[in-house]
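Case study 2.
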Amino acid sequence: MFPGIIKAGLGVGGQFGEGVLFRGGKATAYYNTAGGSFGLQAGGQKYGYALFFLSEDTLQYLGKSEGFEVGVGPSVVVADEGFGKSATTTTVQSNIYAFIFDQKGAMAALGIQGNKITKIQK
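Prediction:
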C-alpha cells in the first residue's frame, strides 16, 4: 500500500513515495517507490495505489529481488475506473493488480516511464 505518491513533470518527470507490505493484516515490510519519465508531459499530482499479489511466487520475487521494476518480472495490471481501462506491463500473465486511489492534481503525459519498488528499513 502506497498512500501518498508525489508525481511531477515538465518534459522530464519523477515520482516518489513510501509504503508498507501487509500480510495477514499485519505490516511485514516497508518499501519506497521511485520513478522517472521523459516525453510530452506537464503537471503534478498526488495519488495512492495498492498492489495485490495474487500468487506466493510473485510475493517471493518481491522479497528476493533487489528492487521490483515495473515492466521487468511479474506482470502488473493497473485497474482504474472500475476495470473499464487496464494496462499490462507484459503480455504473459497477470500476477499483480494495482488499484489507484485518491488522485489530486492534474498531469498529462505521453512518454516513457520507469518505476522501481525497493525494500527499506524502518
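The chain is about 5% helix and 70% strand.
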